[in-house]
Amino acid sequence: MQKGPAWQHTRRSAEGFSLIELLMVVGLIAVISAIAVPTTANAVRNFRVTGDARSLSNAINLAKMRASSTFDRTRVFVDLTTRNYSLQRWHKTALTWVTEQSTPLSAGVTFSVGSLSTPPPNTQATIAQSPQCLDDSGSSIANSACVIFNSRGIPIDSSGAPTGADAFYVSDGISVNGVTVSATGLVRVWHSLASSAGWKKQ
């Protein structure tokens, strides 16, 4: 096959891409972006709500260990309005709850059960956040939820009786992650879509 002069090849390569070729590349990038951006956004949102559930689980386990090691009551205090949760211990001398650390939920994540009406299997009788916390004088604190451990690391209610109905639920509006505490203090993390209950243990 006979090739043209070298100057023809040089000229052809110097001309660059045609407008049609550029438009095709731009169109391809647009299509890939339209597919990738929502998928990436959903993945980031899922990482946030799952990460918050794991952090809540870690805080509850830490409260249980602190209670057993210090032989004192501890609790995880959740402020449903400000979307914060705190590890607190009971100060025997001052007779007050002392906050040791406080953590906010990620952006776009709230304490919520979504539209679910069924709790994870073998946990609560009715799906709900844990009962309200009590202040130092024993009065209920509005818009709060608490998981309390006695000095032996056993979950208890506000009256001091053992309980196995504690749970925290966080949601990003698409999925719900639950952190449940059994009567023995076993902490489990669950996941479900916010639209219909299909709980799976994580």
List its salient traits.
single chain; 202 residues; alpha+beta; minor pseudopilin epsh fold; five-stranded antiparallel sheet; 2 helices
- Total helices: the number is 2
Structural class, from helix and strand content? Answer: alpha+beta
* Share of residues in strands: 25-35%
- Spatially, the strands of the biggest sheet line up as 3-2-1-5-6
Any idea what the shape is?
elongated
Count of extended strands = 10
CATH topology: minor pseudopilin epsh fold
Number of domains: 1
Question: Can you identify the CATH class?
Answer: Alpha Beta
How does this structure look, described?
With 202 residues, the chain is an alpha+beta fold. The chain has one domain: minor pseudopilin epsh fold (3-Layer(bab) Sandwich). Helices cover 30% and strands 27% of the residues. It contains two helices and ten strands; from the N terminus they run H-H-E-E-E-E-E-E-E-E-E-E. The strands form two sheets. Strands 3-2-1-5-6 form a five-stranded antiparallel sheet. The protein has a five-stranded antiparallel sheet with strand order 4-7-8-9-10, with helices on one face. Strand 7 (166-171) and strand 8 form a beta hairpin. The longest helix is centred in the first third of the chain and has 52 residues, at 19-70.
